[in-house]
Design goal:
The protein is an alpha+beta fold. The chain contains 17 helices and 21 strands.
């Protein structure tokens, strides 16, 4: 999760929302004259996504949906990407990112002169300047309440991403005939390498024209002339900047095919056509040569929210690629379709399940939190929830590291989770909890998503064990639309929910564990952890970052924060008319390998 400063609640809701649409796939059928499947250049592949495409600006709050992000990744490019091993992969055909100096931290972005938008306009530092303006919050002078609603001043750009890094930068400097942009940080930032430039997806020259300005350089000149915002001294909103920001926020939102100027690409594919509620058709960008060129001629995206109907469409060959919400039953069905040419791509995701305890309310005494942690039947949860999907699933023993990462083993051995590794109603963990309770029978409210069958199973196992130990358990579960609001409102003593780790860097850690932080839902507060998160935010060395995170991980467990449960499994599946689709732990899922997808005759 990557909550932004102004609109974190809305961004989270947008990312979790699912749209309903009918599946109307129309994939080319098998070629009967071919004796065996043949991979060919060109051709079409049909993909099913759960929600309709709705915006060409996937970095805005209203545009930040999974479908928009996936299509945006196929139609835009940038300085780097993240591979399936969570390593940063530089794209020096697009341009270069250089650390000019450490003190002050100065980063220079230079775009290759060949990179252009699909209307022929070059991608320039003006595009980067606009991206920085939107993502940094530099011009905002808004005061926010506890729900991040604006109560005074102005919030201009409604970006869905976190701004904690770019907010520490000065006004950028453009140079090298408008091909370079240099950022200077007022405070060192640990994740500078990924702060800007994953994709350059909003054309500044189009925003300029739609805002009444002559061109991209005029837009940059406007931005250079507006002073930085100061919430302590708000001023009336700048009307020209307000117009620019309003268009950036929602001007690229659309249900159908917009004016072509709003659908520009600088990536391997172009959006050729949109039929509202039905499909998006992508076609190869003939001018793209600053990255891996795609094999396919076209890519057709249809919509289906029902995972079982996605599987049915794959079986009927009206879809080639699906990413359904996975259950043991659906995985079994997909595996059984192997005889019909269906291939399953399965692996661990960045998401994981956890149980978190509220430091306010009935569990505020540390002994009660420790007692509850002893009751959590983690191994039973693995056996009954995780292993049906992945027989190799294991207990997760760190909040901050995943098993694929080198520091994980040390974290699991040192952070204290081992003391709570095997609690079930039949193990000594119950006895330890009873001893800590000493006859007390505190009532705890357990919050979870009642519409998620896995969370229902987890709740049942946890409630039974806690009751056995002496807790009085109240089912505080809510439906899919209500549970996030209850989590943010603190309407729980125990919360069961998933979290998605950032693929790279450390900036997410302070957002969760720092006192009063935006994603600190359980009122966790530890002065040492606060100090460590401050150090982490400015530490550029990865080894030193890991050392700080190891300490934070241990302190959280020792304080009774809760316990991690297991890493989630993700699944995509493909029919026999597509090859080259690979599993990815990222939200992009199979789309991460879209350039290698090919049509099989």
């Amino acid at each position: 999760m990557r909550p932004g400063r102004i609109s974190k609640v809305l961004a989270t809701a947008a990312a979790l929302a699912l749209g309903l649409a009918a599946c109307t796939g129309n994939t080319p059928g098998p070629t009967e004259t071919s004796a065996s499947p043949t991979v060919s250049d060109g051709g079409n592949v049909t993909v099913l996504e759960s929600a309709p495409f709705s915006s060409f600006n996937a970095t805005s709050v209203t545009g930040s949906t999974l479908t928009n992000t996936r299509i945006g990744s196929a139609t835009h490019s940038g300085f780097y990407s993240v591979d399936d091993k969570l390593e940063i992969v530089k794209n020096e055909k697009f341009g270069k990112v250089e650390k000019v100096k450490d003190d002050p931290l100065t980063i220079k972005y230079t775009i290759d002169s060949a990179v252009q938008w699909s209307d022929g306009a070059p991608v320039t530092a003006d595009d980067l300047f606009l991206a920085w303006a939107a993502a940094s919050g530099y011009f905002d002078d808004a005061t926010l309440d506890g729900s991040f609603a604006v109560t005074g001043g102005t919030a201009y750009f409604h970006a869905a991403g976190d701004n904690s890094g770019l907010a520490q930068t000065e006004l950028p400097v453009i140079g090298d005939n408008r091909t370079s942009l240099t950022l200077t940080y007022t405070t060192p930032f640990s994740d500078w390498e990924t702060a800007l430039g994953t994709t350059v997806d909003v054309p500044a020259h189009i925003v300029a024209l739609r805002s009444g300005l002559k061109d991209a350089s005029a837009l940059t000149k406007l931005l250079q002339g507006v002073p930085p915002g100061d919430p302590a001294s708000p001023v009336p909103a700048d009307p020209a900047l307000r117009k620019v920001a309003d268009f950036w926020n929602t001007g690229f939102d659309t249900r159908g095919m917009p004016d072509p100027s709003l659908a520009l690409s600088n990536g391997p594919f172009l959006v050729k056509a949109i039929t509202a509620g039905k499909e998006v058709v992508l076609t190869e960008n003939p001018d793209y040569n600053w990255g891996e060129k795609p094999v396919l001629d076209t890519l057709t995206v249809h919509y289906e929210a029902d995972p079982d109907k996605q599987i049915a469409a794959l079986k009927a060959e009206t879809a080639d690629v699906i990413t359904p919400a996975v259950t043991a039953e659906r995985l079994k069905t997909l595996t059984e379709l192997g005889s019909q040419g269906v291939d399953v791509q399965q692996g661990q995701a960045l998401g994981f399940d956890q149980l978190v305890l509220n430091f306010k309310g009935v569990l505020s005494p540390p002994d009660l939190r420790t007692a509850f942690m002893h009751t959590i039947p983690r191994q039973a949860i693995i056996d009954k929830v995780a292993k049906p999907l992945d027989p190799k699933a294991e207990m997760l023993n760190s909040f901050l590291f995943r098993p694929a990462q080198v520091p994980y083993k040390e974290a699991a051995q040192s952070n204290g989770t081992a003391a709570f590794s095997a609690a079930t109603p039949e193990t000594p963990g119950i006895d330890e909890a009873k001893e800590l309770l000493d006859g007390a029978k505190p009532t705890v409210r357990i919050l979870y998503n009642k519409d998620d069958p896995d969370r229902v199973k987890e709740y049942s196992l946890i409630a039974a064990a806690a009751t056995e130990a002496g807790f009085s358990v109240t089912d505080a579960g809510r439906n899919a639309k209500q549970w996030i609001g209850a989590l943010k409102d603190g309407a729980f003593d125990v919360a069961l929910y998933g979290w998605t780790s950032n693929p790279t860097g450390s900036f997410q850690v302070p957002q969760i564990f720092r006192t009063g932080a935006v994603s600190n839902f359980n009122n966790f507060s530890n002065t040492v952890v606060d100090q460590l998160t401050e150090q982490l935010a400015v530490e550029p060395d990865e080894a030193k970052q890991n050392a700080l995170k190891l300490q934070i991980d241990k302190l959280a467990v020792e304080a009774g924060y809760g316990l991690p449960l297991f890493q989630r499994t993700t699944v995509s599946a493909t029919g026999d008319h597509v090859a080259g689709v690979e599993h990815s732990p990222l939200d992009l899922g199979p789309w991460q390998s879209v350039a290698q997808w090919s049509y099989v005759k």
